[in-house]
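Troubleshooting: if your tokenizer reports a length mismatch, compare against these two reference records.
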Amino acid sequence: MFFVEKKLMRDLMKFFNFINFSGEGVFSINRSGKPTNRLFITEHLRGGTSIRAIEVEIKQATHKTSYINAEYANIHTHGGIIEGGDIKVKHLKGGKIIANTATVDFLENGIIEADYIYIKRLGSRNLLTATDIIEIDKVDGVKNTITVNPIFDMEKLDKLSELYEKVMFYKRESVSTQKMAYAKRLDMESRVLEAQKCRAKIKSAEDSGEVPEDHLMVAVKEFDLLSRDYRRLVSTIETLKEHMDVAATEFRAYLWESGFVPSQKIVCRSPWRENNKIIFNLPKHNLSYNPSKGEDAHELYLWHNSGLLLEANGEFDIKINKKE
């Protein structure tokens, strides 16, 4: 009987070293059980352990096969999987975080998926994916893939893209037609004097009752066709401009109505290292950028061509701001 009581006391002491509670509720480390309020763990979290709680604080390390689900978590060294709301980790070492907000002091070989990510020191071979903003104080490592995966209202984006392409089509056609009209006008100007001389010779021959020479008739005919083509191009330019103005007005009205302003970006407060890849994952295509060693790319952000600039590289692009 004494042996049984002694063993029970040892088990209880071990449990209280693992979990510290302060009258705030019943605690559970069963993943399928009801979440507890708060867990305070002073020892290493063993392999295969699952925790489900509102708030978790772990002073030591978590095993790579451990699992945590918590609304708030503060962990010293994390090697397992954690899902939750606001997650803070001092050292992410081969672990994975899936959260709303992830704050990590240092990470290596880690994976983070969150809306917002803040990294104090970025090591090597990490995968970071955010839907909004990623902030990094210092890049120490290489072979990192940093991805921004924006969440768009696809109905609004499709409508906006449709209006955008309509405007850009008229713009491109207008520019192309203007170039052709300009070339026609230069050709006309180079032939106008010769055409006038040919007309004068034709009239003189006809007044004398003679048949004008064929080359005179051909030269005048070619000039007249050239003039007609030029007038047609000028008329087309005016029509295209009217269509473009209507489409641009419709585009800007919908842009204002939809409130579409991309806010996604990556902020880095140190020079970059080599072999790191930036990706903005868009619904129809990806935009990527590889910062060079020592590059001062302080802010890389998703840019939308709302100004309808013809020289822009598509509707979206990655823009870079240097540190001030």
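Reference record two:
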Amino acid sequence: MTKSETKLLVGIGILILLIDIFLLKIWVADIEPNIFMSNGISFPRFITIGINLLIAIILYFIKKRYSILFVINAIVCPLLFTLFWNSWLDNHPFDYSEFSFTNDNRNFVLHIEKNPDGVSLREIQKNSMDYNLTLYYGEYEKIGDSLKLSLRFLNNDQYKIEKDSLIMRNRIMYIFENKLIGFPESPFEIKLTKKE
């Protein structure tokens, strides 16, 4: 192989590496990994290995010297993917806040998670086998100084609501200045106590 052919091969290798970095960063950002996705990293790594080996096999019959780039890339891509995955987890750590409140002599806990974003509303039943009975679950979004909670009622036959309607099943609630607004069983704002 001549010097110019070697330079061309190295240049193509660097270009492939830059494309890998760009595409893998976008792929990881699209997945938005969290600590609960323990198996989520294996499948994409196998895909990157498979794609690169398939391209290497095809190029072996067309241009043998370029196929080695994709064999090397089959090793580099999973390592880059793992690096970007771990970097995402470091920059987007799991975090949660918990608030408690009482209503009608019953105790409740509001659990708000970050990465993955989610919210659940549970009733604490100390005499029950379950102890925590999840009533609502869903998502939230930050709007100014408040959180908008979009929740769905879980109908598990252990908890009865007065009105069995769609309005009661899908509920929008808000948290503003440590107060819960829109709780279906109270027309008033409910003071929340943040649990440490």
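Descriptive notes for reference record two:
- Strands lie at 95-103, 106-114, 118-124, 132-143, 146-153, 170-176, 179-181, 190-191, 193-195.
- The chain is about 40% helix and 30% strand.
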